Amino acid sequence: MMRTDLFDYELPPELIAQTPLPERDASRLMVLARDGSGRPEHRFFRDLPELLRPGDVLALNNTRVLPARLLGRKEGTGGRVEVLLLSPRTPAPPADGILWDVLLKPARRLKPGQTVVFAGGRLRGVVRSADGGDPGARVMSFSTEGVWEDELYRAGQVPLPPYITAPLADGERYQTVYGREVGSAAAPTAGLHFTPALLERIRGRGVETREILLHVGLGTFRPVQTDTVEEHVMHSEYFRLEAETAAALRRAKTEGRRVIAVGTTAARTLEAAAARTGRIEAGEGRTDIFIYPGFRFQAIDALITNFHFPRSTLLMLVSAFAGRENVLAAYAEAVRQRYRFYSFGDAMFIG
Predict the structure, then answer these.
(1) pLDDT above 60 (res 161)
(2) C-alpha to C-alpha distance for 118 and 43, rounded to whole angstroms
(3) I need a labelling partner for 88 at 20 to 30 A (CA). Which of 49, 187, 205, 209 fits?
(4) What is this structure's pTM?
(5) What is the mean pLDDT of residues 197-214?
């Protein structure tokens, strides 16, 4: 069994980035050899094209963050309620109502059957049941007088992680420039560094870009609470990998070209797609793949990622890819070099 505390590290609070940099690609980029050879190299994200080779394939998660924070009132008493949408029970919400996994505040005062009213009554939610281990986790059903997505955008706010306390002047800075499909409770943060101009430079070097989809759940960012890694129960998330994209990725692997995951969400999607047969297969559904040291990677050859929480499944995934000691040594170096951490922080290229 692997102890969870093996994935602890010390982080000065002032290194947690509270706001994005004025320019997305101005963030720093640590270049780390997957095999641990040599010292980390310190670059800027705009230098990424110089690290890529003609024929490489970048896998980009094209999800967009939902305006998932809803403020409402209890029907009958008028008590204030905060609802955080986590994930739909079905992938495509119909216009007339949908079941969602949610977090509620104050959860203990909201019993099954309680109706919560949002946006002056245009959007309504009914508490159905408790769900999962989180004290605030519930299932809610929503109904609306109009189109679900329109009403959600009218009533909701884009949620920021709890460690970000500064207001965000431009909500698009918590979205990737290539995000198209709304459904995530949090951003795939490795993609936040890309600009349209940088993507054009990358393609100009003969690098392919392919879009995949994984709707990010908040469970992604929670520290593992169990004493051992193996005891942790992984959350599941909706993913989709189109047949044409899967074929292009398989072709790259066959020809010896690198498949580079932009973010841990892309890595999880591709490894889940390869788990059954050992080759990247098209598919759609939910995945609860949990990647930690000892995992055998079959899909990705390199990884672009931000710096992650201690004890998080994300740090465990990165450690599985590049070795725990190698990764934690790189994190210690990032602290010494005053890198910025977490969602609005700096990035790593591991290859």
Answers:
(1) yes
(2) 46
(3) 209
(4) 0.89
(5) 98
Report the sign of the C-alpha dihedral through residues 301, 307, 311, 314, in that order.
negative
Q: What is the mean pLDDT of residues 10-17?
A: 97
**pLDDT of res. 106:** 87
SS3 51: helix
Are residues 207 and 286 located together in one domain of the fold?
yes
pLDDT for 96 beyond 50: no
Range of the domain at 128: 69-155
- From 155, 182, 208, the end of a domain falls on 155
DSSP letter for 223, please. B
Q: Is residue 162 part of a domain?
A: no
Residue 120 makes CB contacts below 8 A (sequence gap 6+) with none
Query: Would you say 197 and 177 are in contact if contact means Cβ atoms under 8 Å apart?
Result: no
Mean pLDDT over residues 60-76, rounded? 92
Residue type, 124: R
